[in-house]
Write a sequence for this structure.
């Protein structure tokens, strides 16, 4: 098919990761995307990413300083990979979509529900495709877990326990991830967990929870970030910052199917770090490995039998990776994989980009579109809003924008207070 003419908007660490995703597609022999432009307010970042793209892909995309200049200079631009900082997702994605440019926006879709509705409205009005980058669910091991659930390996879903504890008082990559107004870490990272909760067990109906800011002061630590993509900017990170965004949330979720979710996300945890995901059903349980680790899935049946790795595959007959995923992960039904983190990260991002190109050419809908992006965001905010309200809240009232006490300060900061509820 004719290559999709794409731009990367946001040329920082995440932009570099997404460029690496395009590099993996090219290595796999795929030519569905032609990177023709990059865009960033910081022209040094844009030029540097253009140079890196030239080395990686063989052609140099044109660097721009604004979306408007880019749209005027490239009238045949078809797609955008929006990798700006979280606080500007609703601004940049809205501008791109209003121009009719099909857009893959990094998670979360926006900082608030009102911001998300602005992005969604822009897509609906222009008819452009909106895809939200959620890479955890594309991990082959998570595809295997989903197949086990769908194929009835543990019976009817009853309980999912999602736990992430660690981080102590260190700055997580960049200071903005510790500020309420720019995308605190419990939102920026938590939306991944929220997406996985709903990916495995379906829509969340209600949530009750509490939040905490354990460390109002954070200190510089390892700022290279995942795969070292952020090392370029490490020297600019201050030795300490004052944090305003919550660093821990504890949620009790009720799914629409009646199952329950226990969700602990604590980025201020001391002592032993814990990352675990367990799923329990009426006939057994699944222990899922860390996302992007390639470690085996474990299945325990009521018979007392526990199997892992290749032993799990007979219980998931529907498990098949899509062709591009099978190419990147070297197998249609892998029980494990042994890539390092940067390679895994690139592969998963490549799948998001490849899907957008296919959707543009075939008219198919992306796996994670407006509804899924909004729902994952609302799950996180439901816990924040529950803390404010002192009660369990329904996802419906959060998604419709009827309950926004926690979000009001953020909306006011970005001028979103006039947005109507749904």
């Amino acid at each position: 098919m004719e290559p999709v003419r794409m731009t990367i908007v946001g040329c920082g660490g995440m932009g570099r990761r997404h460029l690496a995703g395009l590099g993996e597609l090219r290595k796999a022999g795929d030519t569905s995307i032609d990177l023709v432009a990059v865009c960033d307010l910081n022209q040094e970042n844009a030029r540097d990413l253009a140079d890196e793209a030239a080395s990686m892909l063989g052609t140099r995309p044109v660097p721009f300083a604004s979306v408007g200049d880019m749209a005027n200079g490239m009238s045949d631009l078809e797609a955008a990979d929006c990798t700006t900082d979280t606080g500007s997702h609703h601004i940049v994605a809205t501008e791109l979509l209003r121009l009719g440019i099909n857009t893959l926006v990094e998670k979360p879709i926006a900082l608030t529900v009102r911001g998300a509705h602005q992005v969604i409205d822009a897509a609906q009005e222009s008819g452009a495709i909106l895809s939200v980058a959620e890479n955890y669910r594309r991990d082959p091991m998570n595809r295997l877990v989903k197949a086990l659930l769908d194929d009835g390996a543990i019976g009817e879903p009853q309980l999912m326990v999602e736990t992430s504890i660690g981080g102590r008082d260190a700055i997580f990559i960049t200071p903005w991830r510790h500020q309420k107004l720019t995308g605190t870490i419990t939102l920026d990272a938590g939306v991944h967990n929220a997406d996985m909760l709903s990916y495995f067990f379906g829509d969340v109906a209600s949530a009750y929870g509490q939040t905490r800011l354990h460390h109002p002061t954070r200190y510089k630590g390892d700022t290279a970030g995942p795969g070292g993509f952020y090392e370029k900017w490490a020297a600019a990170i201050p030795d300490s910052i004052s944090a305003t965004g919550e660093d821990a949330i504890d949620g009790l979720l009720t799914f629409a199917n009646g199952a329950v979710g226990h969700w602990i996300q604590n980025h201020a945890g001391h002592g032993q770090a814990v990352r675990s995901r367990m799923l329990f059903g009426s006939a057994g349980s699944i222990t899922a490995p860390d996302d992007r680790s390639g470690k085996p899935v474990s299945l325990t049946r009521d018979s007392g039998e526990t199997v892992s790795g290749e032993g799990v595959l007979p219980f998931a007959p529907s498990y098949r990776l899509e062709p591009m995923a099978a190419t990147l992960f070297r197998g249609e039904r892998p029980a494990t994989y042994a890539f390092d983190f940067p390679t895994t990260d690139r592969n998963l991002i490549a799948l998001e980009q490849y899907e957008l190109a296919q959707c543009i050419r075939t008219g198919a809908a992306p796996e994670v579109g407006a509804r899924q992006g909004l729902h994952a965001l609302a799950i996180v905010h439901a816990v924040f809003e529950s803390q404010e309200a002192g009660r369990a809240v329904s996802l419906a009232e959060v998604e419709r924008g009827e309950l926004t006490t926690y979000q009001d300060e953020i909306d006011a900061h970005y001028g979103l207070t006039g947005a109507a509820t749904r």
Summary: The mean pLDDT is 96.
